[in-house]
Amino acid sequence: MKNRLSKWRLMSVFAALALVLSGCGEPFLSTLTPAGEVAYQQYDLMILSTVIMVAVIVVVTIIFVLAITRFRRKKGEEDKIPKQVEGSHTLEIVWTVIPIVLLLILAVPTVIMTFDQADVKAMDEEPNEEGVRDALVVNVRASLYWWEFEYPDYGVITSQELVVPTDQKVYFNLIASDVKHSFWIPAAGGKMDTNTDNVNKFWLEFDSEKADEANNLFYGKCAELCGPSHALMDFKVETKSQEDFQAWLNAMQSAEEVAPADTAAAQGQQIFEQSCLSCHAVTPQDGRPEQARLAPNLATFGERSRIAGILDHNEEELKNWIRDPEQYKPGNKMTGTYQELSEEELDQLASYLMSLKVEEK
Amino acid sequence: MSTIAQKRGFASTIWDYLTTVDHKKIAILYLIAGGFFFLLGGIEAMLIRIQLAVPNNDFVSAGFYNELLTMHGTTMIFLAAMPLLLGFMNAIMPLQIGARDVAFPFINALGFWLFFFGGVFLNLSWFLGGAPDAGWTSYASLSLASEGHGIDFYALGLQISGFGTLMGGINFLVTIINMRAPGMTYMRMPLFTWTTFVASALILFAFPPLTASIFMLTFDRMFGANFFNVAAGGNTIIWEHFFWIFGHPEVYILILPAFGIFSEIFATFSRKRLFGYSSMVFATVLIGFLGFMVWAHHMFTVGLGPVANAIFAVATMAIAVPTGIKIFNWLLTIWGGSIKFTVPMIYAVAFIPSFVMGGVTGVMQAAAPADYQYHDSYFIVAHFHYVIVGGVVLALLAGTHFYWPKMFGTMLSEKIGKFTFFFFFVGFHLTFFVQHFLGLMGMPRRVWTFLPGQGLDTGNLVSSVGAAFMAIGVVSLLVNIVITTMKNERVGNDPWGDGRTLEWALPSPAPFYNFKQLPLVRGLDAYWLEKMEGKDTLTPAEPIGDIHMPNPSFVPVVISFGLFVAAFGAMYQVDDKPWAIPVLIIGLAITFGAMLYRSIKDDHGFHIHKEDLMEDDDDNKGVKA
């Protein structure tokens, strides 16, 4: 029995080793590859708490293993009655005080960080004469099952792919337009809920070196159950250097509706205007109120990395998506809002949509 | 009655159980119904793990998956874990304090039948248009947006079964306060009784918020109220507060009785009195108290602000202290003992490292900024399965083996028991350990599928394999129960040989009046004290006399059935069905009519006469150990 037990222990060591070797997840997604100040702080707190807790586990395990191996009922001692101990005040005090000390060690950084990460005073600063604040503010609006990112100081709106500069704090206003969602970019920091009741505020920061390791594209997730396609409510975060980001903002501000390059695209544009335009906008400056913005802004559609946040970015998948969105995102709000399109119309529409670009024309 | 070996027909046995007010039979009903729902929840869990075994799987549809995850959580918490624990409380607690029954036997039966009809109602949703799909937490914006009747089934089903639980809790409180045998002071009560006491107090204070919030949800969905409708000035965050003011104590309602079961097992199979008994009692009460102070740690990411988050973070950490006290006291109970590794003891021993792992991740989550990462990820899934499976379910399995002889008079096979333990325990760690890392690697919880290429494939496959192991374990337990019942080898009073508390001085199973003479309790572990003085019976506190017993009653079933009927009426009146309002009225009429009948009809019960008890003594001679 004892031999078998030690084999089990060996097995669990190997299992733990295999886990360590399998790494910490993907650099664009994992909280274990922190890519910004908030994520670093949270990672450090995780490590601190893990170290303390592993120490606790080790102590418990040592006492535990000694106890169950040393005090087994042995042959010939079946009638032995052990001493009936009532307890020990000294021991009780020891195992009350030591945990309290350990918890204090954890509590102090916890409280400091809680306040630090909730510090969004910079959002309330007075804007300059052009209406621009020093701090970069992004309004995030979550809807079933897509994300809208508005840069209020610049009058620019985009969807599904958040664009942020590296090495500076980015402040977020978060809200949901239908049911509660939660905004989470694991590699950049913890999540915050997008409530239907109120605007939540927090900030994140993206480290340029770490962003390079992730090819400047992080994955974002919805972290609150919101309906059938909750699992598919992904978004992407594209990181740019501060200069490139400024250039992108300028391009977005001056972007005009794309003129179709060929007849197919021109046909596609016509179809779009009939079937899609009432919900989807195609320029980054969408003046309508948010209640009227019923679907993702498509101004940068041709530059995105995924279709609907999940499918590969090519015309084939785009046509599949338009043919039957329900198959890819069950419960979405697009299904059934437009009449069926012929294959030819789909081709035209796809070529038009793929031509929607702001930066690379 | 119990001693007259009566061969009963099947129908009369059923009738006996439908009308029983005997706490031991109600315990068996809880065990059967809770066991059934446990299997149901287990099947739902297996479907979930099959769906998540590989990326982009389409074994189940997205909508159906949300129904599965909702019903898995709801079933396991409300219809499996709690009823099974209530079953053990019913079976054992009155025996442990030397009582002949609980304080209100009729309400005890009513509590069971309310739970049963509530559970059946909730599960009928599978066949009547779809189960609830907003998670067991049923957050308001999503639950109001959910189409169909799923959430209505959730609200009405939980309301009915919740009434039952609340009655059970009050009943146990009154029983423990009023019905302890002579000499059974509070500080001589076995720890399982103490944890039952504290858990019942938690039920008393935690269930009303749930009742209130479900009431509001019911009225929002079915009767046009706007408590949670933001557009009409309602607020959804209030639901979250209400739910977790109930939901967090609920966790302790589950784990404290589990602690109690393990405390009994550790003392019994180490042949030692519980180390630090009074600090164990103190820790239990403290955990129960602090349990009400920490609900907002489920809401760190809701945006309550840094002040609330910091306060609740520190309060949550504080709970680790009394829990740590318990762990070390158990270790010191084993220390210096004479340990016998029976199946219950193996579970108890395995519980310590498993639960410690679940506990420490709990402290990690108390660090609010780090929790912004853990929250609603698979890390959380791993954590609460470590405490609930590693704590509560291991206790239920241990308790099943430990108390089986006291409830049914037969011993479950130790050999199959070890087999069950091996598969369940290995499967449990295989399933949930890796989920910590899945969460840290960025996998949100409650996702019906995941895309390949995100580094999540291997971990999910491992987890699904583990789930299969757990299933094998559970099936082997069923086999064990069937074989044991078929063999029907009767055992004596103290089949484990090391029983310490009053219940082990009684025949297995105990006679329907429990104690012929109420025992005189002379200290902690009363039966052990007697044994150490060379006696194998308890010191009686009274001469043999007539015993007053309650009559069986069918009224609890009728009251509960009325609410079950009324719930259909309340639900379908939303669809403007012409029969719905009449059904609602008829259902309520049945319930209130049955209550009225119960109130105006005098039922004085009956007496077991002294002479019959004397006779019993002769019959029992062969059985006594």
What does this structure look like?
The complex is a heterodimer of chains A (361) and B (625). By secondary structure, chain A is of the alpha+beta class. Chain A contains nine helices and twelve strands. Chain A has a domain at 263-354: Cupredoxins -  blue copper proteins (Immunoglobulin-like), CATH 2.60.40. Chain A is 39% helix and 18% strand. The longest helix of chain A has 34 residues, at 37-70. Chain B is 66% helix and 1% strand. Chain B has helices at 10-19, 23-51, 62-96, 105-124, 140-145, 150-178, 191-222, 236-270, 277-290, 306-318, 320-334, 343-366, 368-374, 378-408, 414-440, 457-487, 526-532, 555-572, 580-600, 610-620, and strands at residues 547-549, 606-608. A two-stranded antiparallel sheet of chain B has the order 1-2. The radius of gyration of chain B is 24 Å and the shape is globular. At the A-B interface, α2, α3, β7 and β9 of A face α3, α5, α8, α9 and α10 of B.
List keywords for this structure.
heterodimer, A: 361 residues, alpha+beta, Immunoglobulin-like, five-stranded mixed beta sheet, 9 helices, 39% helix, B: 625 residues, mainly alpha, Cytochrome C Oxidase, Chain A, two-stranded antiparallel sheet, 2 strands, 66% helix, disordered N terminus, disordered C terminus, Cyt_c_Oxase_su1_BS (chain B), iron (chain B)
* Strand coverage percent of chain A: 15-25%
**CATH fold-type name of chain B:** Cytochrome C Oxidase, Chain A
Q: Main beta sheet of chain B: strand number and arrangement?
A: 2 strands, antiparallel
Name the CATH homologous superfamily of one domain in chain A.
Cupredoxins -  blue copper proteins
Main interface by residue count: A-B, 95 and 94 residues
Total of helices of chain B: 20
Give the class-level CATH name of chain B: Mainly Alpha
What structural class do the secondary elements of chain B suggest? Answer: mainly alpha
Question: Widest sheet of chain A: strand order?
Answer: 3-2-1-5-8
**Radius of gyration computed on alpha carbons of chain B:** 24 Å
Low-confidence stretches of chain B: 1-5, 621-625
Order of helices and strands of chain A: HHHEEEEEEEEHEEHHEEHHH
> So what's the CATH class of one domain in chain A?
Mainly Beta
Q: Which descriptor suits the 3D outline of chain A?
A: elongated
- Which architecture of one domain in chain A does the CATH hierarchy give at level 2? Sandwich
Going by CATH, the homologous superfamily of chain B would be: Cytochrome c oxidase-like, subunit I domain
Runs of chain A with pLDDT <50, length 5+? none
Rg of chain A to the nearest angstrom?
28 Å
